[in-house]
Amino acid sequence: MQRIRSLKTGWQLLKSGCEGAAKQVNTSPSTSRNYSNAQLPLRGSGSFGLLFDIDGVLVRGRTPIPAAKQCFRNLVDRNGKYKVPVVFVTNAGNCMRQAKAEHLSDLLDVEVSPDQVMLSHSPLRMFTQFHKMRVLVSGQGPVEEVAHNLGFQDVVTIDMLRDAYPLLDVVDHDRRPKDRIPPTRGLRPIDAVILFGEPIRWETNLTLIIDVLMTNGNPDNVWSSKQYPHIPVLACNMDLLWMAEAKNPRFGHGMFLVCLESLYKKVTGFDLKYEALIGKPSVVTYNYAELLIREQAKRLGWPTPVERLYAIGDNPMADIYGANLYNHYLQASQCTKAQRQAKSGGRGVGPLAETVDNAPKMTSAELGGASGVYGSEEDLPGGCSSILVCTGVYSRDQQELPSDPAHTVTEQRIFHGHRDFRFDPSLTQPSFLVEDVKEAVELVFQQEGWPLE
Fold first, then answer.
1. If residue 157 lies in a helix (H) or strand (E), which one and from where to where?
2. Rounded distance between C-alpha atoms, residue 334 and residue 190, angstroms
3. Count of C-beta atoms within a 10 Å radius of residue 9
């Protein structure tokens, strides 16, 4: 398979300015290589971790991808114990971690523990400032149980809200009150809105969420555009598209967010604002996944810190963009650390400071909105490589990744990312392009100098 040529960006200038000041991970080769015909440079004995997307990489809907079972034979020993730290990072969020772990265990014929599963909403555990607020949650599945499990103490569901205000949900004529106007029971005002994933009845959720935002959390009040900025909104999973059994991608929660943003702007004239956007491709999601990798490495008895991450996914806009964005965050952290060390040693930092200061700044959305939740720079890995497989959203038959920065594919010109993320085509370029997840794991083992069985 072919290793992809990276585009020249300000971040590459940042990376080059850090050479010699911080340990680097070679994810931006200047020439393409074919790893089936040439030996990749080995990494030595340092430790690494694997981040697996699920839909389109391991499964299509409820059907496992054949290569997935094969690749996990390389990842566990004869006793079923993992040889390397593995975390499953998915933007799904309409279930509990335990349920997703059991589902994966059945599909892959290996034991998957809840500690190895990260759903789109998992980082909300760190947003403790919202845990005592009264929150309205939107999604499907056990959303109330999920919210309580994440630490939220006062939870209102969309169904609870429509029961309390029976006159609000009237798009579906069959759900309208028939004989008499039912009384409004009312609820205490809502302080924040949490969007877990795409709901079943979009029109109901869209209508009631707009009601809450335009009445300062109290649908008993009259709509007012003066209620701006609105109460906090936290959204999980920005995937515009995802891959199930159908030949073509299906609409994801990102499409629901597009509808909500458009409706709010149409009615009020203002932009919907997010307190936090989490799930891939936000940095906070990968940072949280790295913490799970680190904990797993300790349980495996690895003697050294995790030095490198490999993120395997099928969606250039979510998996690849996110892994590359996190790699840039890691490189920037390394540079900042090197700057401080140089200053404390009384040495001038010269071009290093200039490259850090002039590098493109990540938006609040890309960082996830969770300031102060990231780990110590001493604990962070050196880098994160992105590996794109062709079994899901990305397909060689439908799309072609550019080898020249001057040519971009249609998917990149038509930006599928979230409104609040930068349009940077270089972030959708993978470090490696392979056919399937089995080939991805083989590539990582070869890259790390591990024997294949």
1. strand 154-157
2. 41
3. 18
**Are 224 and 240 members of one domain?**
yes
Provide the domain count of the chain: 2
Q: How far is CA 21 from the centre of its chain?
A: 29
Of 9, 55, 120, 5, nearest to 423 by C-alpha is 9
Tokens 């200053």 sit at which residue? 343
How would residue 382 be classed by pLDDT, with cut points 50, 70 and 90?
A: confident
Rg (CA), the chain: 23
Query: What is d(CA 114, CA 12) in angstroms, rounded to the nearest whole number?
Result: 37
Give the pair of three-digit tokens for residue 60.
């299509």
Pull the structure tokens for residue 216.
Answer: 């300062």
Asked whether residue 293 falls in the same domain as residue 273, the answer is no
Maximum distance among all alpha carbons in the chain?
Answer: 81
Put simply, whether the predicted model's pTM sits higher than 0.70 gets the answer yes
Kindly state the tokens that stand for 82.
């993992």
- Residue-wise pLDDT for 184-233, tens only, equals 888 999 999 999 999 999 999 999 999 999 999 999 999 997 889 999 99
Sign of the torsion angle spanned by Cα atoms 350, 356, 360, 364? negative
Beta strands 63-64; 59-60: pairing state: antiparallel
DSSP β-ladder status, 276-278 and 233-236: parallel
303: pLDDT strictly greater than 60: yes
